[in-house]
Structures
1.
Amino acid sequence: MAFAMHRFLASAIVLLATPSTASAADWAIAIHGGAGVIERADISAADDAAIRADLAKALDAGTAILKAGGSSTDAVVAAVAALEASPWFNAGVGAVFTSAGTIELDAAMMEGEGRRAGAVTGVKSTLSPIALARTLMDKGPHVFLAGPAADEYAREVGLSQVPNSHFMTERRRKQLNDLRMRNQGASLERPEVRMGTVGAVARDVKGTVAAGTSTGGLTGKSPGRVGDAPLVGAGTLADNRCGAISATGSGEIFIRTRVASQICDAARFGKVPLQKAADTTLAEVLALGGDGGVIVLGPSGDGLFSFNSAGMYRGRASAKGPREIKVYGDE
Ligand code: ASP
């Protein structure tokens, strides 16, 4: 009798679960390549085309995985790794310089079913910080590793190592030199010192969301400075109960505003629509003197963007929606 009741309950639960699982099982992905003073007058037509092509490559890498039934984690890692490999963005190759003329990379990865996470800061020799964050998420035992210990962990698990100079580009070296000439430190009021952090959020056909963010931080930052990108709840968050979020902007203010947590909690506990939760949170960032943006993907629907800056490198695709790549605020 008890067994029969158990079977009845089990099938009732399956029946109840089926419709919502089916509607949540549409894949979707959104990516960003940083937000800031991105204006047509400052970007040549050739550069604009090259940036869009690299955004498209990253979006398509993630999309191919999701279309084939792959996991949101795999899709996020593929998209972010493609952006890390592009010299146009402030992550991996093309990352900004510290005040010491070195490159220190931060990244975080999180998946929303088990709320597993991996994060690294001050990475100097690991080719793909997002792959390192993902490996830490999968293998543990810790969630967050810093500095030489993070690179050492990467070596131990067999992730590719490169000299720090591998990440350096002339464009970013010039940005550091310009800053030094003006005798100014990294300043939150000057968004051009940090443009180009990259991130992705995705939902797979099982309905699991994932988020990943990777960055070089701020031009001229102090060695050892940690931004919002690798902090779960600030620049990166994934939780199937609210969605996945990846942020870019004035890191210190994003940390103080708890950007990703605030968006998630407003949606989860306050039942606020995600777009409104993101817009309200970015308005708070602005009120504290910060700028930037977020990409957000809920348990259903397409990826959303919210930014308080002139532009944000961004793209999205989904099972139902159009494939879009955008750069300027008025697109
Ligand atoms: N949020 C990043 C940081 O502060 C920089 C950026 O997104 O542009 O490290």
2.
Amino acid sequence: METKIFKINSPEDENIKAVGEILREGGLAAIPTETVYGLAGNALDGKCAEKIFAAKGRPSDNPLIVHISSFSQWAPLVKEIPESAKALADAFWPGPLTIILPKSELIPKEVSGGLDTVAVRMPENEIARAIIESAGVPLAAPSANLSGKPSPTTASHVIDDMTGRIDAIVDSGDCNVGVESTVLSLAVYPPRLLRPGQVTPVMLTEILGEIEIDDAVFDKLLDGQEAASPGMKYKHYSPDASVVLVKGSFEKFAKHVNSNAVDGTVALCFEGEEASLSVPAVTYGRRNDPASQAKHIFDALRTVDKIGAKQVFARFPENEGMGLAVFNRLLRAAAFNIIEL
Ligand code: AMP
Ligand code: MG
């Protein structure tokens, strides 16, 4: 299939209409959001969800996040909107928080992956909201990468993965946040954090009082253990190279990398650290700056593959606040492989 590319830099752009029409007619379009690029289709049409799974090569029991552009689109998608959900939406929407609630009949089983709940968010990116509005329907949109690959944070990542597989790609430059939305389930009590993102546990606790953090945020699921969020049981964010997360000071890191370097060893480090390393280095943001690390981590993971890395030693990010989101993605990229020096 021919994939049309639309360069769109403002929510008033003429091309928004064309993309909205493709989506309204049942086509798929990759669209920018503030987190990562999304692969969007009509969330009320199970056939569109099936096309999304096929384009990504994603297992169809992994539910899709539904994106809305106005508060009034939310109520018809869920059984009810409890006070806690309203308070969260008031505080964080539009923005990178996904809220899970029991679903209404409008949500096809293909979108919810067979679950009786639905994940909804209102993106902050104005171009995303203009496209949803123009489509006239809520949009199911997982990350626009091939399943298992790092999420796309630039249009060129999407072009690499999705050309020939979907109807359109919107090119709006780089994503601001760089890691996917925080996913919180209000379908259980206490509310449960399923995926960390820019909206941190502390920010959620301020609104909700108590939350729990799902075990799968930090740990590998044991064989046979059921995933609260089906996506967490799949291999994720992984470059082709084997990645090891190295915990310890930069001095120890550099010594370890330099003495274990073989052909194909690459260091994944912070800006400014490259000069002390004897192997090719790819950086992911600044030390002690989780927001800059989040913005660059997925591009860095794609870059290590592009330069042919076989073994990657990665600096350990802070794992609190927004750093928890970066740590969670790197932990999966490293297949839970950590060494402590
Ligand atoms: P992505 O669409 O690639 O951003 O991934 C969405 C994530 O949210 C996946 O890990 C899904 O498993 C999770 N998710 C979406 N809907 C639900 C739901 N109804 N219940 C639990 N997890 C969900
Ligand atoms: Mg994804």
